[in-house]
Write a structure and sequence with these properties.
single chain; 443 residues; alpha+beta; two-stranded antiparallel ribbon; 63% helix
């Protein structure tokens, strides 16, 4: 049995909203957003740059070769008590080829290890950015659906209030109701109109947010069934999720690797107190045309040299020892940062877990409230028709019913996003989780 399975949600397709033309699914929009979202692309490019830094660090441990050449024109002579040469002009051409291979450079070796760890940090940051994009896109996606549902329920309420207003007017005309019923219904209708305007604007703003996230205009999310029977998190013990987050959360991984980088920084600082050893091979060639300052004969000289160069630091004003102390303090700080990150993520994981459980319970309560509100509305309508209830009772019952419907719809979306956020905190959120939600969308 797979302990940490993908998002556990069972869709009951007894009620679905018809999708708009050219609607996009959640996975489809995620693929588009990955190629457009600036935050994700920034992290992606940073990871590419970090990979190049690894190669730069590794190059310090490999051989190097340099070539140099010099051409000069000289004028002079040699003077001594016993002999002398006349002043003359001569040319000198020199060329040098120098090769070096590090044999013992602990500082550079530590730098290579640091670069590889920095690459792991970049990979963890990229994973975190992918998961963050999934959650941000899903939140924006469901915000639109929730706003659409809210507008739909407000418009349905307007229709019901309009019918009640017409009913009150007829009753007033025949003398079976007072003008108060008509005015109450008119006030409720005017309020619903104002709510519709606000809901339309809210939907417009939510769509603009999704358009900006994916870089497309007029995006239209495919609707999802509102009759979803949500399940709680699997596994159902919070400590298992906390343990998983401590192991796989990308943020904690980054802090732990950063602590390792700080430890290597101490090693690198300590290595500056050690000698370094390099193998050097060189070949130099000198061509003196028209002699030198001491002779007028042409000469050509080639010299090959091999050497093992040992450099030992002797005194640097205590700068290196102070640098070691500095890196030790920074390493201890990095270790404290790890502890803080673990505690923070653990707390957030617990909050997400219990928030998800609360959301599932809230859906059950809202479903019961929806059924009760419908029964109450029917009873108030019947009571109004026989004269035992007044119009305001019916209007209040209608308002409560549609408000409950909107809250129920949003609660379902919140549970879906809650599953994604819990898996994000635990570091196991994958595209497959979006695909599971995708399967619940209307064709």
């Amino acid at each position: 049995m797979k302990l940490f399975c993908t998002l556990p949600l069972i869709a009951a397709m007894s009620m679905a909203f018809s999708g708009a033309a050219r609607s996009q699914s959640l996975v489809e929009l995620y693929d588009v957003a990955k190629n457009y979202d600036a935050s994700y692309k920034s992290v992606q490019l940073q990871a590419q740059a970090t990979r190049l830094k690894v190669e730069q660090a590794q190059a310090k441990l490999g051989p190097t070769a340099t070539a140099s050449a010099n051409v000069s024109l000289n004028s002079g002579g040699f003077y001594a008590p016993a002999s002398a040469t006349d002043m003359h002009t001569y040319g000198t051409q020199t060329g040098t080829l120098l090769g070096s291979q590090p044999l013992f450079r602990p500082g550079d070796k530590a730098e290579v290890s640091q670069a590889n760890l920095q690459l792991q940090i970049a990979d963890a940051q990229l994973l975190a950015a992918e998961q963050d994009l999934m959650v941000r896109l899903s939140q924006t996606y469901f915000d639109i659906l929730a706003s659409q549902d809210s507008l739909t329920f407000i418009q349905a309420q307007m229709k019901a209030v309009a019918e009640q207003l017409a009913f009150a007017k007829r009753n007033f005309e025949v003398g079976t109701a007072t003008i108060t019923d008509t005015r109450e219904a008119q006030a409720s209708y005017d309020l619903a109109v104002a709510q519709e305007i606000a809901a339309q604007n809210d939907l417009r703003v939510k769509k603009m947010a999704l358009d900006q996230l994916v870089g497309k205009s007029d995006t239209s999310p495919k609707p999802i069934s509102l009759a979803v029977e949500p399940q709680g998190p699997v596994p159902d013990r919070v400590e298992e999720w906390v343990a998983l987050s401590e192991q796989k959360n990308p943020s904690i991984k980054q802090y732990r690797i950063t602590s390792d980088v700080a430890r290597l920084e101490t090693d690198k600082a300590q290595s500056a107190l050690l000698p370094t050893v390099d193998l050097q091979l060189s070949y130099s060639y000198t061509n003196n045309s028209s002699g030198t300052y001491a002779t007028t004969y042409d000469s050509r000289v080639g010299v090959t040299t091999g050497a093992v160069v040992v450099s030992v630091p002797l005194f640097n004003g205590n700068a290196l020892s102070n640098r070691v102390k500095e890196t030790i303090s920074l390493r201890q700080k990095a270790e404290s940062d790890v502890d803080a990150a673990v505690r923070n993520v653990s707390q957030n994981t617990r909050s997400a877990f219990f928030g998800l459980l609360s959301g599932v319970s809230q859906i059950k309560a809202l479903k019961a409230a929806e059924e009760s509100s419908q029964v109450a509305l029917d009873a108030n309508k019947l009571g109004y028709s026989v004269g035992v209830r007044i119009n305001i009772n019916v209007l209040d019952a209608q308002s409560k019913l549609y408000d409950t419907k909107a809250k129920l719809a949003k609660a379902r979306y919140d549970v879906l996003v809650g599953h994604l956020k819990l898996r994000q905190l635990s570091g196991v959120l994958q595209v497959e989780d979006l695909q599971n939600i995708n399967s619940m969308l209307t064709p």
